[in-house]
Amino acid sequence: MSERTTVPRPRRRQTHETDAAATALDDNATLHAMGYPRKLTRRFRAFDNFAISFTIINIISGIFSAFGFGMGAGGPSVLVFGWIGVSLMVLFVGAAMGEIASAYPTSGALYFAAGKLAKRHKGAWSWYTGWLNFVGQIGGTAATGYAAAAFLQAFIALHWPGYVATAHRTVLITTLILLLQALANTYTVRLVATLNRISVWWLGVGMTVIVVCLVTVPTDHQSPSFVTHFVNGTGFTSGLYAAMLGLLVTSWTFTGFDGSFHMSEETVKATVNTPRGIMWAIGSSAVAGLLLMLALVYAIRDYPATASASAPPVRILIDALGAGTAKLLLLIVIGAMLFCGLANMTSNTRQIFAFARDGAMPGSRHWHSVSARTRTPVKAVWLAAGCSFVLIIPAWWSPTAFTAIVSVNVVGLYVAYGVPIFLRLRLGDAFEPGPWHLGRWGRPIAWTAVVWIGLSSVLFMLPHQAPITLTTFNYAPIALGVVLLVAAAWWFATARRRFQGPVSYGSPDEVAAMDLV
Fold first, then answer.
1. DSSP state of 465
2. How far is CA 303 from CA 71, 150, 240, 438, in A?
3. I need a surface site. Which of 89, 266, 337, 513 has the fewest CB within 10 A?
């Protein structure tokens, strides 16, 4: 990836190259040029920006949550080689997003970029992108909390065999997790920033410990050829269809790297550090995740018994390492999921703040207000927590609720990722990148990203298991359809007359005078 000191369109007012370079890396000037005053404190450095996306991607959380699905949708061959292929595709998506983030480093991120890159109907493009991003992030916060609650109960059941995990208990524990994460984002903002840094080491060291244990402790492993073993337990006769479904394991893991984009107004040298954070988070997760995936696959003992277990990765740990060691490693997994949920809620809050700042949400004045004590959008925190809670309520009675939540998370986010990338392609040579850009590779990388986003989004909405019944039905198309229907009805009813896309609060000098000290 190349870097240059050329700056995007709003900042090309300087007459000298040295002035242009200074402006590109002057965070306040960049924000003022986009028409916004500074309200948030820039406490995130390059590592912190990387940490937020690395924590949300969270290979431990993603792989342990979805591994069981992959065992029946392609088996080891798709789990391993699918991980490699999808990771490469996600790198294309991240690179295309990073180029846009360098041009428009604002908390609005995807919806802001969509509004700026659209040739026509800027308000509509921005509106739908923002709501897809909002729903996708809410789904991610809810799904991660639900997964943490499920694995926490698995740990409790290992320690106290008489404990019985139930759907009601899972929902209650998830509610408690969401409450604690909201309180942390409200009252201990500096601690949250510190925890995001710690989470990187927790994930790195935790992954290493799990891999080393699975490689060195068991007396025997599967043969090297086991990685080519294919399994179709989906109920569909087509092996190709099953293999395509298996790619969703990796797609579900690689969500949320737009977190770096949303935190750009709190990141120093955001035009460079934000895209770097996205790319480093995806690249390091791809390598570390492959090692973890291989370790789990080769440690499988009894494949049918493991695949049919309520939590297949837990069964792998118990069979390979014994119940005692498995319990200790489960604590690492649960901790990773809690870190992931906390970072997800932080990113979710910034998107709400920016969307409300542009008047695109009910009660916008309320949700984009910033706490004088913490300089963070505290009220938006509780909206994120409340909406996540609403999303998990159906799990009280529906066994397929978690799958639907995950699908809403992934489809909502990836479509929101794809819209500004597609609009950047439509803009052609008129697109003016920031200091971090892809040069002549920008268009082919962006086209690859758009094609992959389209394919993976369709896969998430197709049936995942046969026969199709009330308990196996994939509710993602209905959930996504409801969201788009409500957004469309609202748009045509009132929003199209008052929302024209990202708003400017004045000239750079005028918005500079509005900065919070």
1. S
2. 9, 22, 21, 44
3. 513
pTM: 0.86
Q: Which residue has the tokens 């490693």?
A: 329
The residues, any chain, with a CB within 8 Å of residue 84's CB and separated by 6 or more, are: 290
SS (H, E, C) 218-239: CCCCCCHHHHHCCEECCCCCCH
Q: How far apart are CA 96 and CA 103, in angstroms?
A: 11
**One-letter identity of residue 233:** G
> 145: pLDDT confidence band, cut at 50, 70 and 90?
very high
How many residues make up the chain in this entry?
A: 517
Please give the average per-residue pLDDT across 220-230, as a whole number.
94
Q: Which two tokens stand for residue 37?
A: 């005053």
Distance between start and end Cα atoms, the chain:
36
pLDDT digits (tens, 9 = 90+) for 229-244: 999 999 999 999 999 9
Q: Note the pLDDT tens digit of each residue in 20-48.
A: 444 445 787 888 888 778 877 777 888 88
Q: Which long-range contacts (CB under 8 A, 24 or more apart) does 126-131 make?
A: 126/358, 126/360, 126/499, 126/501, 126/502, 127/360, 127/487, 127/491, 127/495, 127/499, 127/501, 128/419, 128/484, 128/487, 128/491, 129/416, 129/419, 129/420, 130/351, 130/355, 130/360, 130/416, 131/483, 131/487
**pLDDT tens across 408-465, in order?**
778 888 899 999 999 999 998 899 899 999 999 999 999 999 999 999 888 888 888 8
Give the C-alpha separation, 1 to 108, whole Å: 24
Smallest Cα–Cα separation from 260: which of 35, 101, 418?
101
Instruction: Please name every residue paired with 437 in a beta bridge, in sequence order, or none if there are none.
Output: 2
Helix/strand/coil (H/E/C) assignment for every residue in 323-346: HHHHHHHHHHHHHHHHHHHHHHHH
pLDDT at 474: 78
Q: Above 50 in pLDDT, residue 347?
A: yes
Q: Residues 145, 172: contact at Cβ < 8 Å?
A: no
